[in-house]
């Protein structure tokens, strides 16, 4: 996999040679993700969201990739969801993985914590990656440990969702 690969998906990002993230991909975009060499797809969005695919799991499995769904309530991210995410990432190991939700907000917050708490990446670098998509407020600020932003609304980097 090449570090400069890119797919036209909302808030596409490459965190490393083995990790890409985005908002909700279409079926055609999932096929393009597969063509990049991705073997695992993790979805943190809810299947009930209007932008979710009708049967993403079947599409992903049909393309020969493994699918994991961790439904994270956007209004109430919980520690158990984050711990499951950490367990999944540990099981993925060095395999190539694409992690997405609806707009890549949940994912970037989870990776902010994962990078700083598990991978030992500096806070500034992890925050810069997250803030390409948004600056969490309210419950998400509390979730990432940013007490100073817990009373503010979310701020989106490029557009208002």
Would you give an account of this structure?
The chain has helices spanning 27-35, 56-62, 79-92, 105-117, 123-131, 138-144; strands at residues 13-16, 19-22, 40-43, 66-69, 97-100, 134-135, 155-156. By secondary structure, it is of the alpha/beta class. The chain has a domain at 13-121: Protein-Tyrosine Phosphatase, Chain A (Alpha-Beta Complex). The strands form 2 sheets. It has a 5-stranded mixed sheet with strand order 1-2-5-3-4, with helices on both faces. Strand 1 and strand 2 (19-22) form a beta hairpin. Helix 4 (105-117) runs antiparallel to helix 5 (123-131). The termini are far apart.
CATH class descriptor name of the domain at 13-121: Alpha Beta
CATH topology of the domain at 13-121: Protein-Tyrosine Phosphatase, Chain A
Low-confidence stretches: none
Query: What can be said about the biggest beta sheet?
Result: 5 strands, mixed
> How far apart lie the N and C ends?
31 Å
Structural class: alpha/beta
The CATH architecture of the domain at 13-121 is Alpha-Beta Complex
What form results from the Cα inertia axes?
globular
How confident overall, as mean pLDDT? 92
């Amino acid at each position: 996999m090449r570090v400069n690969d890119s797919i036209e998906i909302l808030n596409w990002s490459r965190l490393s040679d083995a990790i890409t993230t985005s908002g909700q991909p279409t079926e055609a975009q999932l096929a393009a993700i597969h063509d990049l060499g991705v073997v695992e797809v993790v979805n943190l969005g809810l299947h009930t969201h209007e932008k979710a695919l009708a049967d993403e799991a079947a599409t992903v499995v049909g393309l020969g990739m493994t699918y994991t769904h961790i439904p994270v309530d956007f209004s109430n991210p919980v520690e158990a969801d984050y711990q499951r995410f950490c367990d999944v990432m540990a099981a993925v190991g060095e395999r190539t993985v694409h992690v997405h939700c609806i707009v890549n907000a949940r994912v970037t917050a989870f990776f902010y914590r994962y990078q700083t708490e598990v991978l030992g990446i500096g806070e500034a670098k992890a925050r810069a990656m997250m803030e390409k998509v948004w600056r969490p407020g309210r419950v998400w600020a509390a979730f990432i440990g940013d007490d100073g932003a817990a009373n503010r609304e979310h701020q989106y980097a490029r557009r208002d969702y």
